[in-house]
Amino acid sequence: MKVLVVGGGAAGLMAAGAALRQGHEVTVLEHMEKPAQKILVTGKGRCNVTNDCTAEEFLHHVRTNPRFLFSSLGAFPPARTMELFESLGVELKVERGRRVFPVSDKAEEIRQALLRYADRADIVHDGAKKLLLEPLAQPEEAPAAPEDPRRPKKKKPGPAYRCVGVRGTSGREYKADAVLVATGGLSYPTTGSTGDGYKLARQAGHTLVEPVPSLVSLVSHDADCKKMMGLALKNVTLTLHEDGKAIFEEQGEMLFTHFGISGPLTLSASSHLGDMKKHKYEAFIDLKPALSEEQLYDRITRDFALLANHAAQGALVKLLPSSMQPVMVARWGIDPATRANQITREQKRELVQLMKHWRVSIDARGDLAHAVITSGGVSVREVDPKTMQSKKALGLYFAGEVLDVDAYTGGYNLQLAFCTAQSFANNL
Ligand SMILES: Cc1cc2nc3c(=O)[nH]c(=O)nc-3n(C[C@H](O)[C@H](O)[C@H](O)COP(=O)(O)OP(=O)(O)OC[C@H]3O[C@@H](n4cnc5c(N)ncnc54)[C@H](O)[C@@H]3O)c2cc1C
């Protein structure tokens, strides 16, 4: 069979390699000069290639449409991904949270392994501009019968087209029996994912779930963030509230930036945001999660006794990083000249509250271009979860981030690109 893969990224190269092993003739269209550029920025250049968990555990980390992955993940779980990369010569290691990385800590090694896996494919430097679609005759509808409860329900219309190839931006036509769209989402467009797959899908009549940034930094109009920009906090707990209700809580690292907050905790929290026009979001940071409010009160009392003659800010030296001390004093509302031994019990209690519940308003998501992934995309209702074939056009398939499936951080997004790609190739 002639297989055309549009997009030589994680999903595209995985699909190409797997289709070759099924004896198919494979062409990959890649519009960037080098394929799989995005792999190089994954895991901060180390590529968290999958997560060493079972398929069942994996599904708990998929944010959108986990059920869609049931079949493909069952057939190609993380263990198979690890086996495959090891068979391609990549030594792997498992880190915190069962994140899997190459021992070399080099994403390039994963990229090279994928290229080796797909090395018998013809990789053509061209972009896919348009699908070549042939209309399919629809079965004639039976004449409408009077209200009859025994009458079978109206059948859903079958595919309206057959996809027979793609027209490239060069004008060249690429004919194929199966066309896989693996063009990724809209984030990090410099790596080649510019949303073209959405246009191709729309051409075949697919519904698109609005693409929004996910795993992204968050914008806050709170001026304190800018005052502390560059400050990274380790071992803090971030709780995200939606309309006053906690919807996410995790301990880890975060960062204040000139526009709001970033860092691993923030990215994870961002994937829990819903419609920001309808809901109000706030983040609360517990700066001392290891201490209860009572313990923190006692600790503050001890510190203030030791630093008795220091002014308010100086009294915080052992408790807070330097760039946070003046911001804390301002939010605390205490006269900065107050000496530690003059601070009242009530003021210490207020300080405990600020340190355990540092509030940051969340006003917007960061932009799509800087998001780790794009949430949304081709509606999975219109794609067969076993074969990845479009229900709108025969011979058309989707895999990877172009689909409306996305997961949290931890190697899950690459894994879902890999398993959907394998499902495509192994069910042709
Ligand atoms: C900074 C960052 C860090 C990340 N870290 C991790 C991580 O550690 N672990 C993890 O699991 N996930 C991570 N991800 C997410 C992961 O990289 C993506 O989910 C994954 O790459 C999606 O694979 P894909 O093949 O669907 O899309 P992509 O990898 O984006 O590949 C799409 C390919 O299609 C090509 N293309 C697009 N349009 C056309 C066209 N019209 N014609 C021809 N070619 C086209 C593109 O050039 C590109 O090569 C990270 C993402 C980012 C941005």
From TrEMBL:
Cofactor: FAD
Name under which the protein is recorded: Flavoprotein, HI0933 family
Residue ranges constituting the RsdA/BaiN/AoA(So)-like insert domain according to the UniProt record: 212-371
Source species: Faecalibacterium prausnitzii L2-6
SUPFAM superfamilies, sorted: FAD/NAD(P)-binding domain, HI0933 insert domain-like
Segments forming domain RsdA/BaiN/AoA(So)-like Rossmann fold-like: 2-123, 169-423
Record's compositionally biased regions (Low complexity): 134-145
Keyword hit for Nuclease: no
Stored InterPro entries: BaiN-like, BaiN-like_dom_sf, FAD/NAD-bd_sf, RsdA/BaiN/AoA(So)-like_dom, RsdA/BaiN/AoA(So)_Rossmann
